[in-house]
Structure formats: C-alpha cells, structure tokens
Amino acid sequence: MAKAKGKRVGRPPAEEEPVRATVISLKGSPEYVEWLDAAHRKTHIPKAQIFRLAVQDWAAKQGLPVPPEI
User: Fold this and answer.
1) I need a labelling partner for 22 at 20 to 30 A (CA). Which of 46, 47, 64, 67 fits?
2) pTM for the complete prediction?
3) Cβ partners under 8 Å of residue 70, min gap 6
4) 37: part of which helix (H) or strand (E)?
5) Do the Cβ atoms of 59 and 67 come closer than 8 Å?
C-alpha cells in the first residue's frame, strides 16, 4: 500500500502578487560560471540582480528606456 502524502508545507501565493515568468536562461562556459560565482561571492549581489543591473546600464548607454520594474 502506498504511503499517504502529507499536506504541502509553505506559504500559498498572495492574491496581489503578480505572476512572474522566466525571462532568460543563460548558458556559459565553466569559466564564465566561475566568474559570475566569484562576482556574486565578492559583492553578495544575487546573480539575477547582477544581470538586471547590466541590462539597465546597457539600455541607458544605447539610449533605450530602462526595463520596467520587476
């Protein structure tokens, strides 16, 4: 007989939280992975935030509007 599964533990999403979609999946060489890991460890900035800051800077330099808030 199969073991009964317990209730899922965790906070259910709040009604007012917007739906978030995956924007990008980035692949790179092992050296790139190590570089990004080192940048994260040194700055304590999450890797996704490093990417967001880079895109924001790039857009400003290109004369594009900055990306919308997340």
Assistant:
1) 64
2) 0.67
3) 20, 52
4) helix 30-43
5) yes
